[in-house]
Specification:
Layout: H1 8-17, H2 20-37, H3 39-42, E1 64-71, H4 81-87, E2 94-104, E3 107-112, E4 122-126, H5 135-138, E5 139-144, H6 155-191, H7 193-208, H8 211-222, H9 226-236, H10 238-252, H11 256-263, H12 268-276, H13 281-305, H14 316-323, H15 333-359
Antiparallel strand pairs: 1-2, 1-5, 2-3, 3-4
Helix pairs in contact: 1-15, 2-6, 2-15, 6-7, 6-9, 6-10, 6-13, 6-15, 8-9, 9-13, 10-13, 11-12, 13-14, 13-15, 14-15
Pfam families: BPD_transp_1, OppC_N
Keywords: Cell membrane, Membrane, Transmembrane, Transmembrane helix, Transport
Membrane topology: Multi-pass membrane protein
């Protein structure tokens, strides 16, 4: 009969598996992560930042279809396959929504799409690249499954590509906060005295400044941009980690295994990294899950204020900013859908945090 393992990590894993919402949230976050990495593979509009604009079909309802004429460019696209997959296609072709067309020899006559019952402009161009046989290659019916935004961009593609910023800012911000928080908290908790007093003063000063205000100040100092926001959010979230680590180390350094390690002559670095930190990871993991959710909300707020990810980069917060006035103009889904995406992702991280808290609780 095989001996059953009853290690704390296995018991925690078994408890986590029994938590339906925890497992469901983990699967959901995994799917969002997959979409974030391969956003341009799933997005109908695979151009960089899903930024293909068609002003004539702006703010169209979900399921809207139109014939799209593609006029190839003379500029050669020398992108590699991996570059297209991860960063989008540098689309140099011209796309024009049309309502009807006719081909006569090398002449292509088309009528541009116009909404609200208006008649579009009719144009004739010399189209050597197109004939009756290849018309389907350059004129295709395009369906916008979630409609278009106020610039005529595919809303579904923008949502998929926008998931990348909201998802990865959690990882980058939490990583930065963990590195700084664990180092500062470990030093304060282990050495105490003046070191503790100095670090706690820094923590209290940082804690007293409103998070959004501090992020705005750091963002303005570093400049507007993608990575600047990631760093700014991470630099404001380390205080919670540091306080938790400090409290846990103050308790743990009184334990017998720490006394034994000191008696064996181990260095302070080894005692902290090899003996104390592995035993206090449970609360740090739980607070990291909460910080994931907080980072997503802060980034969304920054993008809404216009100092987060900059156009034409897709961001859920920026999409709400662009379309919040459409809530009273009869097309609320333009702002509600990105808001719903933020809510679901934040809720998933919070549910995982609750599930981890229950699973890692040794008292139950």
């Amino acid at each position: 009969m095989s001996q059953q393992t009853h290690s704390l990590s296995q018991l925690a894993l078994q408890k986590f598996k029994k938590n339906f919402w925890g497992v469901f949230s983990l699967v959901f976050i995994g799917l969002i992560g997959l979409v974030s990495v391969f956003a341009y593979v799933f997005a109908p509009d695979a151009s960089q930042h899903a930024n293909q604009m068609h002003v004539t079909i702006h703010s169209k309802s979900p399921g809207f279809s139109v014939d799209m004429l593609t006029i190839p460019s003379q500029i050669k696209n020398d992108q590699s396959f991996l570059d297209k997959v991860f960063f989008g296609n540098k689309n140099t072709d011209t796309e024009i929504p049309i309502s009807n067309y006719s081909i006569n020899g090398n002449q292509l006559t088309y009528t541009e799409y116009a909404s609200d019952g208006l008649e579009g402009v009719t144009k004739t161009i010399n189209a050597n690249f197109i004939n009756q046989n290849s018309a389907k290659q350059y004129i295709k019916k395009v369906t916008f499954y979630l409609g278009t935004d106020k610039y005529g961009r595919d809303l579904l593609s923008r949502l998929l590509v926008g998931a990348r910023i909201s998802f990865f800012i959690g990882f980058v911000a939490v990583f930065i906060s963990l590195v700084i928080g664990i180092i500062m908290g470990s030093l304060a908790g282990y050495y105490g005295g003046k070191v503790d007093a100095l670090i706690m003063w820094i923590i209290n000063v940082t804690w007293s400044i409103p998070t959004l205000l501090l992020v705005i100040a750091i963002t303005l100092a570093l400049g507007k941009g993608f990575w600047q926001v990631f760093i700014a959010v991470g630099l404001t979230m380390w205080v919670e980690v540091a306080r938790v680590v400090r409290g846990q180390i103050i308790s743990a350094k009184q334990m017998q295994y720490v006394t034994a390690a000191r008696a064996l002559g181990f260095s302070d670095f080894r005692i902290i990294s090899k003996h104390i930190l592995p035993n206090i990871l449970a609360p740090v993991i739980v607070i990291s899950a909460a910080n994931f959710a907080a980072a997503i909300l802060i980034e969304s707020g920054l993008s809404f204020l216009g100092i987060g990810a900059q156009p034409p980069m897709a961001s859920w917060g920026a999409m709400i900013k662009d379309h919040y006035n459409y809530i009273i103009l009869g097309k609320p889904y333009l702002a509600v859908l990105p808001g719903l995406c933020i809510m679901l992702l934040v809720m998933a991280f919070m549910l995982i945090g609750n599930a981890l808290r229950d699973a890692l609780d040794v008292k139950h």
